[in-house]
Write a structure and sequence with these properties.
This protein has 17 helices and 35 strands. The protein is of the alpha+beta class. Strands 13, 14, 15, 20, 23, 24, 31, 34 and 35 form a 9-stranded mixed β-sheet that branches. Strands 3-2-1-4-11-12 form a 6-stranded mixed β-sheet. Strands 6-5-9-10 form a 4-stranded parallel β-sheet, with helices on both faces. It starts with 6 loop residues before the first strand and ends with a strand.
């Protein structure tokens, strides 16, 4: 009798590598894999990564952090979509908030993802109080649908003014469209974001329509590939809020998958940090293209209410707060017309990749600099790659950096890393010092394929206390996919002074939204260890534009007194004071329903018994740091025992990353196998 599938696999598809983390829930065995990403069809790398350590038929659950939606937004490669809007509001997407691509410039171009000829108006009007002034003209809806189809639209979004207050007109239009439209890609703004502020609601709903065909086709390809290989695995998709959702939800709400891979990494980082006794960390995910930074305080990652994926592409949906800059392993270095060395944001990605990959790229990257300086072992690269071409990396650095700046190859390589590290340090300061946090309280948690190569330089430059390198840093986001809970977020606009809030109506709305979330959890068919419901409000003082997030303590009834006390605490934490005597306003109610998945025991990743530091030693290698050559001790990181202490300079290799211990730093292995870098 064959045993039931028991393997849970987390898959994170990045710009350069596809990372996989395997957990056999029956035996507790774990494995990791890192294979090159495949573009334009990411499903090829996805299925190849899953096949490295498991038969696809043995997979019980696959949890996927995808960049398909993010890439489609950044590269403007979404579907051709149309928007049907209230007469007079055709240009909401173009007007935005009257912001500019360059803050200090007077000029700037912006092309909305939905062109003007695909934004049509129809007669209808709902007032701000929810009353219907003009019923929707259904004949105009039929005509608009025909026009959009003639103009090649594959998806359609309906975004009527004030539909958050009363969706009747919008619902009637969408109901008719769903009988006329040839596919399921019909979006209602009141279903996506029933929240006031017409630009944010329209933008979020329109981008959802823009992404739906692209993401749905990709998910269907993944599902078909698994089924053809004999796998009946449940497929879940990571959301940008750090939770997961089922395939049906992902197809309906692809806008919530933006930044899902980095969000999964932050979720894993929070678990690892708490288990290691360092609940205050700043994460630094160095992939092939970008450097993603997030702050975790008290073991909790901050959530932002909205984010912009590129200028003007605003998504209002709860997201793990992540700052991203173009400084990854594949970021291209060069000297600009002013004679200044620049690194990124352009990236060589996985194809052709850095010059040392030998695939035709002749421009240097940060990976090439690390290879030339001896910090990466060219004969044992990560990601199942062939041996790296050191000579090609040297030629690229000399031609594009060394010769223009009058530097030798090693000095030029160090200059590339100094510029890249300075950019990364700036992002770390942005999420810490500029938001009122003292870096000395925080540890850096580097992950991604390249994070541990830069960790030492970053703690020295930013003043962070130490660095905590996870057991498998190169696949931390894939681990986060396995750890993440299932979560569904809901919002309802109240827009009332706190003193006039109807407590009974709020309680009824909380109950309604909680029931909707519970139904979605039930539909997923996933085993949960427990369920939680979180209630929060967007609030401000009357007259203010911007709001603060106000979370009610668990099991606290949403009374005016409890909401007011929580608002005072949240406002004081954000601004250092409250405005005594000023009246508070409740803009939105937010409800998050979470299905808690069984906890992953990080002790499963701890080093095996009987290991010794000497047994992990692999000799030494010349490395270049601080303008000089050093003899660096080499170690197999995964064979180091708890308590091992290694002084820099040293290099700790493992299949998914390389840890560089800078001169003047010391590396210590904790009980869970994490490596802690500190000043000697």
């Amino acid at each position: 009798m064959s045993r039931a599938p028991s393997i849970v696999a987390g898959v994170d598809v990045g710009g350069t590598f596809t990372d996989v983390f395997f957990l056999d829930e029956a035996s507790g065995r774990t494995d990791v894999a890192k294979v090159p990403s495949t573009r334009p069809d990411q499903s090829v790398g996805f299925l190849k990564g899953l096949s490295t350590h498991a038969a696809l038929a043995d997979l019980a659950t696959v949890v996927h952090g995808t960049t398909v939606g993010t890439n489609a937004l950044l590269e403007r490669k979404g579907a051709r979509a149309g928007v049907i809007m209230t007469a007079g509001f055709r240009d909401v997407l173009e007007m935005r908030r009257r912001d500019r691509p360059r803050t200090w410039g007077l000029r700037g171009d912006y092309d909305p993802p939905i062109p003007r000829d695909l934004r049509l108006e129809v007669p209808e009007r709902t007032l701000a109080d929810g009353s219907i002034h003009t019923a929707v003209d259904l004949d105009a809806i039929r005509a608009a649908a025909a026009t959009l189809r003639e103009r090649g639209a594959e998806a359609v979004c309906v975004a009527f003014i004030n539909s958050f207050a009363n969706p009747t007109n919008e619902a009637a239009a969408v109901a008719l469209l769903r009988t006329l439209w040839p596919n399921p890609y019909v979006v209602a703004s009141s279903e996506i974001l029933p929240e006031m502020r017409e630009f944010e609601r329209t933008s979020t709903a329109a981008l959802n329509a823009y992404l739906q065909p692209v993401v749905a086709r990709y998910l269907q390809t993944l599902e078909d590939g698994l089924r053809q290989a004999g796998s009946a695995a449940e497929v879940l998709i990571v959301q940008s809020n750090g939770g997961v959702m089922d395939l049906a939800s992902a197809r309906a709400l692809p806008v919530r998958t933006a930044l899902s891979g980095p969000a999964a990494g932050v979720i894993a980082a929070a678990e690892i940090a708490v288990a290691a006794g360092m609940p205050d960390v700043i994460t630094g995910d160095v992939g092939g293209t970008s450097f993603d930074v997030a702050l975790i305080a008290g073991g909790k990652a901050a959530l932002a209410a909205e984010a912009s994926i590129g200028f003007g592409l605003t998504i209002r949906s709860p997201m793990v707060e992540i700052t991203t800059i173009g400084a990854g392993g594949g970021s291209i270095a060069g000297v600009d017309r002013a004679g200044l060395l620049q690194v990124g944001p352009e990236s060589a990605g996985s194809d052709p990749g850095p010059a040392c990959y030998g695939r035709g790229n002749t421009r240097p990257t940060t990976t090439d600099a690390n290879v030339v300086l001896g910090r990466i072992d060219a004969s044992r690269p990560i990601g199942a790659l062939a041996a790296l071409d050191v000579a090609a990396a040297e030629r690229a650095i000399v031609e594009h950096v060394g010769r223009p700046l009058g530097l030798g190859v090693h000095a030029a390589a160090e200059a590339i890393l100094r510029v890249a590290n300075a950019k990364m340090a700036g992002a770390i300061r942005l999420v810490s010092i500029e938001r009122g946090h003292d870096p000395k309280r925080f540890a850096l948690m580097p992950f991604g394929g390249g994070g541990a190569l830069h960790a030492g330089a970053l703690i020295l430059e930013t003043g962070l206390a130490r660095a905590l390198v996870p057991r498998h840093p190169g696949v931390t986001s894939a681990l986060g996919c396995v750890i993440a809970d299932m979560r569904h977020d809901f919002v309802h606009t109240l827009n009332r002074p706190l003193a006039e809030l109807d407590e009974a109506a709020v309680a009824a709305m909380v109950a309604e939204l909680s029931a909707r979330g519970a139904a979605l959890l039930d539909r997923a068919g996933v085993r949960f260890a427990g369920r939680e419901t979180g209630v929060a409000f967007d609030m401000s003082y009357i007259g203010q534009t911007h709001t603060v997030a106000v979370a009610l303590p668990e099991d606290t009834a949403a009374s005016r007194a409890a909401i007011g006390a929580a608002f005072d605490q949240a406002y004081s934490a954000a601004f250092g004071r409250t405005l005594s005597g000023a009246a508070a306003r409740v803009l939105n109610l937010r409800v998050a329903v979470t299905g808690k998945r069984p906890r992953f025991d990080l002790a499963l990743l701890a080093p095996a018994a009987g290991l010794t530091t000497e047994g992990a030693r692999r000799g030494s290698r010349k490395i270049h740091a601080g303008g000089a050559w050093h003899d660096a001790a080499l170690y197999d990181r995964l064979r180091l025992p708890p308590g091992a202490r290694i002084a820099g300079p040293a290099v700790l290799d493992q299949p998914d990353t390389t840890i560089f211990v800078d001169p003047g730093l010391v590396a210590t292995v904790d009980r869970l196998g994490n490596v802690i870098l500190e000043r000697a």
